[in-house]
Each structure stands twice: as structure tokens, then as C-alpha cells.
Amino acid sequence: MLGTYFSQFTDTISSGWNQFWFQRDSPKTVSCLRIVAGVVALIYALTFTSELAIWFADGGVLPLDRTYRLTGASDPTVRVYYWSIFYLAHSSMQLYALHVVGLISILLFAVGFQTRITSVIATLFVLSYAERAPMLMGVLEPLLCPVMIYLCLAPCGAYFSVDAWLRARKGDTEEVPPSFTAHLATRLIQVHVVAFYWMMAFAKLGNPVWWNGEAMWWLIAQPDNRLIDLTFLGGSQGSRLLVFGWTHLVVFFELAFGLLIWFRIWRPLLAVLAVFHWVGLGLVTGHWEFAILMIGLTLAFAPWETLEIASKETSSSPQQETATPEPASAGA
């Protein structure tokens, strides 16, 4: 009996593992995620435009030798693996020439033109922006960079892209077959997003201001990056209680999302709540690019096959009603 139990146990674990990772999915999910990641990456790259030479030129704030010293790369006894294509540029002209190439490649990736090639080039530039000065990285780069890498694995230009439009113009209207790499990229993004939610939630649980309910007020009160002024919420006892409740709901949602998102019945509700969650935090903190990315990556959990079946049933139901013959009159 014990041997039978362990045999069933290992079979269940192995079948669940294979079903989770080694399946074939439609590339529609990764195609939508390409648009999300491409748009956010383009916004992220554009933020460097006005101050690119001020930061990274030889006479700027962080020239190459100073970056080496700050990251420890100048010490031969320390192994540092930072690398950026912008390390090759020293003058303003060289920096902006590479910057233009990067913007064009990211734009082509976002619209889905020659996606197999532009995905790799765009990812190289996004990594280069982040790695040129790692000390300047914020909350966006640790999520955007891995997502770009994962999308390089998948046929993310199969749908909703210039590639798909060109393919249709040539008369190729067949559905793109399900792909293992599309499934793998989706799973990697799902796991990464859930890990990010739990990381943020556990970091908040280690801070006393999130336990006593004051954290959201401190975010609201800081005037530097916020997009909306909500300091009026500290004017009365009732509004302060609202802020305290908001603080605890932020932590609760981030913990619940990482657990309940794996159950299909919860996904529509969590997707709607994620919009309110990140819109609120984006307005208060000013990290609106990160908020857009987190909302968009919720599409990684979208059950496309369910949506397609529902849409087919909806479109076929009027036809069935029209085709149904009316009952013959009893008098006739």
C-alpha cells in the first residue's frame, strides 16, 4: 500500500509538472504581451532622451570610468558582469546615434515587424539602458528586462502585428499553430509576475508602517513624484481611516494575487482589481510606467481558449435562433 501511494504521488507530481511547463499554446497571449512590453519599453527608452549626454557622455555625471568604479568593475579581483552597448559610446553624437537605433528597434518590436529579429535587438537595448548605470535602476527594470528576454523565446509577432498583416496580404490566412515556446514564455512571465507580487508583499510586511496603516499616507504626502495630490485625505478622522484601510488592502491584494491567480475562477476579478490597485499606486507614487506594465502583464493569465469558445458560442447563437423553424400552427 505504501509503495502504491508513493507511486501515485510521484506520477501526480510529474504529470502536473509536465502539464504546467510542457504544453503547446496559441501565440495570442505572447503577442498581446509583446505590445504591452514594447510600449512600456519605448516609454522607458524615451525618458533617457533629454539627459542622455548629461549622464553618460565623457564629461557627464556618470562617464564610463566612474561607472566602473561605482560598480566595482575597475577592481580586477571583483567579478562584475554589467555590460551595456552604450559602453561603446563616449561623445554625445555617439550616444544619440545608438539611442536612435534603440528607439527604432523597440518601436519595430512593439508593432511586430520582423519580430524574431527586432525582439532580440530591442531586448539588447533595453538591457543596455538598464546596465549602463545600474545604480540608477528603479522598480521598472527588474521586471521589464526579464519579460523582454522571455518574449525573445516565443513567436510573439504571430498575431496583432505588422508581420501578421503582411502574412495576410500574401494570402496566408491560416491560424498559427500552437507553440511550445509560446507556452514556456507565458509560464515564465506568470511565475515572474507572481514572484514580484509576493516579493513586494513580503517587503511591506517587514516594514512597521505597513502594519500600523501609515504607509499609504507617507506615499501620499511626498510631493516629488506624485501625479495627484491626495493630502486632503489627512484632514479628518474618517479620511484617515480610509487611508489606513487602503494601506492594508494593498498588502492583502498583493498576497492574494500571488495565490488566487492560479485558479481560473478568480482571474477576471483579480484582473479588474489589479487595474484599480495599480492606477491608485501609480497616481500616488508617480511610477506610472511600472503600473502600466503590471496591469498589462495580467494578460499573461488570460484564458484565450475560453474567450474564443465563448465568442464562437455567442456568434453562433443568433444563427441558431434564426435557423430554428417556427412551430406549425395547430389550426393548420
UniProtKB/TrEMBL annotation:
Polar residues bias: start-end ranges: 312-323
Keyword annotations from UniProtKB, A to Z: Membrane, Transmembrane, Transmembrane helix
Keyword Methyltransferase tagged: no
Record's bilayer topology term: Multi-pass membrane protein
Annotated stretches, region: Disordered: 311-332
Domain HTTM-like span(s) in chain numbering: 22-306
Official protein name in the record: HTTM-like domain-containing protein
Organism from which the protein derives: Bremerella volcania
